[in-house]
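Obj: model holo form, ligand = zinc ion.
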Amino acid sequence: MAETTSLLRMRRGNSTEGSNPSRSATIAESLARGLRNFFCLLASGSLPSMSSHTLLPDDERWMFKALEAAQRAELEGDVPVGCVVVHPELGLVASAYNKREAEQDPTAHAEVLALRQASQNLRRWRLSDCTIYVTLEPCFMCAGALVNARVRRVVYAATDAKAGACESLANLLSDERLNHRCEWTRGVLEEPAREQLKSFFRARRKKTIQE
Ligand SMILES: [Zn+2]
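Output (holo structure tokens):
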């Protein structure tokens, strides 16, 4: 922290020519205080999680596959959420979609089903070299399962303000208290994913009114 403060002092020396030195000192001190608080919060794990926001070349291609899987959920009367698991050498090792209604199973979310399928295909429960693409921000159960599976990277399309546990309601993927952290990126093909969900709920409302 001393280094940060002296760096700020150096910057202050370079950038405040002609301005009020005491005011500049106050600004630099408050910046230094802000940085100190930031690093303290970071160390305590209380900061909101940081996503990489780095898009990799195939992200859209795999998210498109997840959207296709989500489409199948919709055809079966389930909320359209799709998920694929990608291995760096083998490529696609699992593809699943939400089956909560179809199977009358509260745990049959796309991510849980995809993790099971990938583990069976790879014959191991640790998926530390895999990337998960899912069309909606994972919930508490699924984010917990992703951490338990030691997934390397999670990419999702739309955020879920009511149930999302990666940034909306909690930051499970990057919680320092847990024994594994997943890298995560959001917003890949967000618009089509959001539109898919909206049109599903629009159609369902219409159906309910007609009945
Ligand atoms: Zn879930």
